[in-house]
């Protein structure tokens, strides 16, 4: 029982941390999409024009930003629901409920690792273009690098925003690993307890049957008594 309580408290703490980390993904990604006028800088490439020194952008698909953004929303909603559910849990969870927790944990883990890899690799591609002109990607933040009809794009915070999103994504991945392991441990523990209960019941029935057989007189003795 003590182990079950520790695992339950660990799950609640993990989901609380996951809510915070999902916000670390959701808010910066939303700000970046807004500041880049609906464009996504992840995996975006381009070339520097020699005549004016501006960056001629070849925008990547917005899906590279939308997937991590919706992953953050998914993690936030699931974690909020799980915190509410666990905090009100009084009875021991059923096997089906624990199995669902494991499946949900696998989905959370898969989405978070895909988002983390997508943000990291996509940001590396963008920074490779920036470092062709600037000494570091951080230096390019806030510089006037995009010209023409895209002057309204604000590049001042992209480095901090993507850095925060990376932290939130990789942190979410680490926490979802822990949450998934705890859910799997609870499922295994529940399965073992069920097996023990079944084994104890079968052993009890065997002992009862054995006791009843020992208390009954032999058939030959019953026959002799009936003849007399």
TrEMBL record:
Recorded coiled-coil stretches: none
Organism this protein belongs to: Ceratitis capitata
Subcellular location(s) of the protein: Membrane
Membrane topology designation: Multi-pass membrane protein
Main location: membrane
Annotated protein name in UniProt: (Mediterranean fruit fly) hypothetical protein
Pfam families: Claudin_TMEM179-179B
Family: Belongs to the TMEM179 family.
UniProt entry keywords in alphabetical sequence: Membrane, Transmembrane, Transmembrane helix
Membrane spanning residue stretches: 12-33, 67-86, 98-126, 167-188
InterPro entries in the cross-refs: TMEM179 (IPR029673), TMEM179-179B (IPR059010)
């Amino acid at each position: 029982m003590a182990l079950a309580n520790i695992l339950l408290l660990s799950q609640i703490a993990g989901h609380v941390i996951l809510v915070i980390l999902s916000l670390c993904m959701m808010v910066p990604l939303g700000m970046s999409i807004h500041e880049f006028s609906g464009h996504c800088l992840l995996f975006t490439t381009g070339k520097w024009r020699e005549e004016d020194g501006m960056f001629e952008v070849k925008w990547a698909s917005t899906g590279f930003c939308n997937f991590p953004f919706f992953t953050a929303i998914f993690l936030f909603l699931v974690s909020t629901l799980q915190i509410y559910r666990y905090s009100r849990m009084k009875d021991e969870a059923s096997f089906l409920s624990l199995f669902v927790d494991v499946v949900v944990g696998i989905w959370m883990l898969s989405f978070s690792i895909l988002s983390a890899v997508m943000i990291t690799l996509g940001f590396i591609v963008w920074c490779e273009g920036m470092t062709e002109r600037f000494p570091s990607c951080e230096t390019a933040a806030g510089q006037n690098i995009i010209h023409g009809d895209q002057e309204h794009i604000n590049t001042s915070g992209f480095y901090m925003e993507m850095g925060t999103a990376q932290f939130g994504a990789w942190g979410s991945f680490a926490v979802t690993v822990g949450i998934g392991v705890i859910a799997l441990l609870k499922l295994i523990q529940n399965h073992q307890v069920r097996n023990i209960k079944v084994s104890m019941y079968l052993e009890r029935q065997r002992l009862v049957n054995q006791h009843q057989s020992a208390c009954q007189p032999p058939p030959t003795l019953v026959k002799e008594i009936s003849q007399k």
